[in-house]
Amino acid sequence: NGEKVLCQDVDTELSSLPHVADAAVIYVNRQLIAVISPEEQSSREEILASIEQYNMTQPYYRRIQQTWIYDHALPYSSSGKLSRNRLEQEYTQQINRDRPQCGSIR
């Protein structure tokens, strides 16, 4: 609806959720994607439930469409700035790697 979403604001909100150690959002293919570095011993189900609860409190344009559980610490530069570009590249590579190869069957 033309509303501007500030990724840093959403990052902060997601990072405060239960079971989330650190979080970032990236915008890929017109979707807000949560990149979550989980707290130790947190399950995927617990994290997804936290994201679902978050989405219920947000207007449509701020809702998370996909969640990527990131297996290690999020990438930051030496100056402490989140490397959103690196996350977007890694996410795209992951999607391409996991996508089944299509071809014609003869």
Report the average pLDDT across residues.
Answer: 88
Percent of residues in helices: 25-40%
Taking Cα atoms only, what radius of gyration do you get, to the nearest Å?
A: 15 Å
Distance between the termini: 46 Å
The tally of helices reads: 3
Give start-end ranges of low-pLDDT stretches: none
Share of β-strand residues: 15-25%
Describe the sheet with the most strands: 3 strands, mixed
**Shape, per Cα inertia axes:** globular
Structural class: alpha+beta
Strand order of the largest sheet: 1-2-3
Question: Helix and strand succession?
Answer: HEEHEH
Number of strands: 3
Fold and architecture overview:
With about 110 residues, the protein is an alpha+beta fold. It contains three helices and three strands. Helix 2 links the parallel strand 2 (about 30-40) and strand 3.
List keywords for this structure.
single chain, 106 residues, alpha+beta, 3 helices, 35% helix
List the helices and strands and how they pair.
Blueprint: H1 7-15, E1 20-28, E2 31-38, H2 44-56, E3 66-69, H3 84-98
Parallel strand pairs: 2-3
Antiparallel strand pairs: 1-2
Summarize the structure.
This protein has helices at residues 7-15, 44-56, 84-98, and strands at 20-28, 31-38, 66-69. By secondary structure, it is α+β, with helices and mostly antiparallel strands.
